[in-house]
Amino acid sequence: MKTLKLTMSQALLKFLDNQYIEIDGKQNKFVHGVFGIFGHGNVTGLGEALEYLDTDLNYYQGHNEQGMVHAATAFAKQKNRLAIFACTSSIGPGALNMVTAAATATINRIPVLLLPGDIFACRQPDPVLQQLEVTSDYTITVNNCFKPVSKYWDRISRPEQLMTALLNAMRVLTDPVETGAVTLCLPQDVQTECYDYPESFFAKRVNYLDRRKLADRQLAVAVEKVLAAKKPLIIAGGGVHYSLACDELADFANTFKIPVAETQAGKSAISWDNKMSAGGIGVTGTSTANILAKEADLILVIGSRLSDFTTSSKSLFQNPAVQIVHLNVSSFDGKKMDGLLLQADAKEGLIALKKALLNSNYQTDQIYQQHIQKNRDLWQEEVNRLYYLTNNKNINSQTNILGVLNDFIGSNDIVVCAAGSLPGDLHRLWRTTHPGTYHMEYGFSCMGYEVAGGFGVKLANPHAEVYVLVGDGSFLMMHSELITSIQENCKINIIVFDNNGFQCIKNLQMANGSKGFGNEFRHRCNQSNRLDGLPLTINFAKYAESLGAVGYFAENISELKNILTLAKKEKKSTVIEIKVAPHTMSNGYESWWRVPVAVVSNEEQVRSSHEKMKDKMGSVRVY
After folding, report:
1. 420-463 pLDDT per residue, tens
2. Looking at the structure, do residues 340 and 405 belong to the same domain, yes or no?
3. Helix locations, 31-146, DSSP H
């Protein structure tokens, strides 16, 4: 057996460089590079290998460990999980900075490979700088914090253990059901130790994504359920995108005249102007989708994990006879809400179901189709009203700004968002025509994802204009990878909606009895000793310029239109700041979201809100 003497770090990179993934006969290079920030836990091990080993893996310098993992996650999501990045950090705080982003990837079912440095396996110099010592269990390091947020976790305490660990890592990273963050903890001494690795270990490896077909028994049951349905509704989740099934979804819906509602992850799976498009569903959904969901006698859920936002905290499906049917590769997701599982790849399942239904000449009746169209027309009138809502010329309303952006941004360009009130407005109002042009991280709704995510999306789609829509609160939390975008000549456009605080959460407070507390960006007032003094003054445009981006400030809608044209011509990243009046986002339509309200309070409005919440709980499903 031929062997190669390599350090563990060198062997790791050599293996990753030769990983491929194949679906429908098309192969893609799986690992495209490594994001990293060096420290004493990885610079002389993995850093040495990245510097001197001859591979096709590009190294990208991160500027915050959480941010670089967000960028890697966004890249993989935009690539429909067919390509990934690895991310390396030093030990201690550098590693822990990646934990939040690891959870973001895992919750969203997106593959990312994390390679945090770890303490010395030999323990000779313990305790080293940044080492956590757990007196009850000396095997624990800060990297154990990755366990609950990783789909696979391992610590490589001997160089030969790398082989088993990497095979398991690839198993999980390429599994459409089990994928998420994979963490391989790398003790800093072991990174530099060598082993005679079998040469065959580094041969080209193709990881096959074989589509799971729908079983005949399940297909027969599904056909029976659809044929009996008078008011069916499809909910399209992220699995539609990841199985590359957008065309099949539109074809299925149009053939049988079944409306399609979209989750945040599923949005853009069907064009907004398709007559069967009902728009976003749930707490942040359209009136069309939510009315149809309340009346539906069959809900066909395709590739969704049915979060509380999708189901309006399990209050949305109100027809007593409703049957929930899941087309999903995951049995865990497919059994939710006492649903009937059709365990199959979304594309394969839709094709099989369509073929079987064609034999029955099934189609929803004209009355239901007219009902769909009537609600679609009413909703588009509402979108137009909100998009062009300019009653007060001195106020920049959030929905009006989005209308301008939606009109300006090209149909093949990509919008990126994650948290605050913007996801609600985008899910309800944003009109998409092409799959993959709406990139929303809403599984974790992680503030700070936006800018880093925009950079990752640009790496995945270098020829598209990428627009990051972010509130001032999220921008302040994390924008470090703006520097990386400038460094790599990967232009992104960041539009900062400055409403002077966490106004989305202030709205939630006020809707449940609060007068508003602790969410606006204000100075502390000497009289009240609370944060209700004068507003903070932050010049985001000037700050962006100091980082090397092109900064703009739009005073009003007219200026914004002109600035968007200028920004599109720029060759490097831009930041556009526009002031937004608080409370100018859209509200809920035919939806409810369960939030806890204090049982005992000195405030009458809080007590009243609690009673309303109790009343609503009488109509929700428990499972």
Report:
1. 999 999 999 999 999 999 999 999 999 999 999 999 999 999 99
2. no
3. 46-52, 65-78, 93-96, 99-107
* Residue whose pair of structure tokens reads 């952006």 in the numeric block: 405
Quick one: how far is CA 617 from the chain centroid?
29
Q: Beta partners for 471? A: 497
**Residues 289 and 194 placed together within one structural domain of the fold:** no
pLDDT tens string 380-397: 999 999 998 876 667 899
The DSSP symbol for 273 reads T
592 Cβ partners below 8 Å, 6+ apart? 283, 312, 313, 315, 616
Q: Determine whether 360 is exposed, middle or buried from the number of CB atoms within 10 Å of its CB (0-12, 13-18, 19+).
A: exposed
Does one domain contain both 72 and 194?
yes
Distances in Å between the alpha carbon of 110 and those of 70, 334, 336, 497?
11, 18, 20, 28
Q: What is the pLDDT of residue 178?
A: 96
- Interhelix angle 398-408/422-429, rounded to 10 degrees, is 50
- Given a contact cutoff of 8 angstroms between Cβ atoms, the answer to whether 151 and 181 are in contact is yes
Which is it for strands 19-23 and 26-29: parallel, antiparallel or unpaired?
antiparallel
Shared-domain flag, residues 141 and 223: no
Together in a domain, 168 and 227: no
Average pLDDT over residues 270-280: 98
CA dist 442 and 430 (Å) reads: 15
Taking the C-alpha atoms of residue 469 and residue 461, their distance in angstroms, rounded to an integer, is 17
Residue for token pair 């929803």: 364
Domain final position from 208, 243, 270: 208
Distance (Å, rounded) from C-alpha 81 to C-alpha 207?
13
* 175 is a domain residue: yes
Q: How far apart are CA 442 and CA 452, in angstroms?
A: 15
Distance CA 148, CA 133 (A): 20
Write the burial class of residue 109 (CB in 10 Å: 0-12 exposed, 13-18 middle, 19+ buried).
Answer: buried
Contact between residue 520 and residue 501 where contact means Cβ atoms under 8 Å apart = yes
Q: Are residues 248 and 127 in the same domain?
A: no
CA-closest candidate to residue 528, choices 517, 537, 512: 517
Q: Quick count: other Cβ atoms within 10 Å of Cβ 142? A: 21
Q: Are the C-beta atoms of 36 and 68 separated by less than 8 Å?
A: yes
What is the residue whose two structure tokens read 């590769």? 329
**Domain coverage including residue 327:** 216-375
Contacts with 415 (C-beta within 8 Å, 6 or more apart), sequence order: 405, 409, 426, 430, 437, 438, 439, 467, 468, 469
Q: Report yes or no on 562 lying in a domain.
A: yes
Beta bridge pairs of residue 88: 36, 115
Q: CA 586 to CA 584: how far, in whole Å?
A: 7
Contact 507, 497 (CB under 8 A): no
Q: Has residue 609 been placed in a domain?
A: no
Which of 46-55, 89-98, 179-188, 611-620 is the least confident region?
611-620
Tokens 């919008």 belong to residue? 415
Nearest CA-CA partner of 314 in 591, 108, 598: 591
Question: What is the per-residue pLDDT for 613?
Answer: 82
147, 296: one domain: no
pLDDT, residue 515, reads 84
Q: Is 265 exposed, middle or buried (0-12, 13-18, 19+ CB in 10 A)?
A: buried
At residue 589, what are phi and psi to the nearest 5 degrees?
Answer: -125, 115
